[in-house]
Amino acid sequence: MWYVYILRSEHTPSQEYTGVTGDLKQRLVDHNAGRSSHTAKFKPWILIWYSAFPDKGIALDFERYLKSHSGRAFAKKRLLPPL
């Protein structure tokens, strides 16, 4: 299984991060340990949404969509809890 996920910074809730992984639990641990240069500055992170996909390609396509302008609007309106 592949997971597309959205994290929210605990200390700076306006900061969110969208990613894809094959091991969601370990990836969250990695983000909170500062092992990602993109997320280290805003740790700790809270998992606020995820979806599982059976195929890596589909997961990557959906992650790419969520990172687009229309995908961010969709996520804000349909997937994410309010700030």
TrEMBL record:
PROSITE patterns, per the entry: GIY_YIG
Q: Which SUPFAM superfamilies match?
A: GIY-YIG endonuclease
Residues in coiled coil: none
Gene3D superfamilies named among the record's database cross-references? GIY-YIG endonuclease (3.40.1440.10)
A Pfam family recorded for this sequence: GIY-YIG
This protein's source sits in the domain of life called: Bacteria
Q: Which residues form the GIY-YIG domain?
A: 1-76
Q: Which CDD domains does this UniProt record tie to the protein?
A: GIY-YIG_SLX1_like (cd10449)
How is this protein named in the record?
A: GIY-YIG nuclease family protein
The organism encoding this protein is Lacibacterium aquatile
